[in-house]
Amino acid sequence: MKKAIVYHVCGLTKLFRYLQLGKIKSPVRAWKTIQEAERFSKQTGRPIILRLKFINPQQLGGHKGNAFFIKEDYKLDKQLGFNKLKHRVVLR
């Protein structure tokens, strides 16, 4: 079982949807490094970067090997911890 720390980029509307559902619906895509996530954030105008822990991530084609995804929903209640969410959300 391979675990990886990755960075998911989203907008405020999506973040609220994630919190309402309690999960990020699959497929969940994320970047290998914070630098790649920041670059993508600036490029797309999505200001929020979430630090996530993926189990058995698969490499996304292209992106110079810096993007990963998982095929299952990512549950927020355990991994992010709603009480600590404000510390893990980066607004740019």
How would you explain this protein's 3D organization?
- With 92 residues, the chain is an alpha+beta fold.
- The protein is built from 4 helices and 8 strands, in the order E-H-E-E-H-E-E-E-E-H-H-E.
- It has helices at 12-21, 34-44, 76-79, 85-88; strands at residues 3-10, 23-24, 28-31, 48-55, 58-59, 67-70, 74-75, 89-91.
- It has a 3-stranded antiparallel beta sheet with strand order 1-4-8. It has a 3-stranded antiparallel beta sheet with strand order 3-6-5. A two-stranded antiparallel sheet has the order 2-7.
- Strand 5 and strand 6 (67-70) form a beta hairpin.
- The longest helix is centred in the middle third of the chain and has 11 residues, at 34-44.
- The termini are far apart.
- 24% of the residues are buried.
- The mean pLDDT is 85.
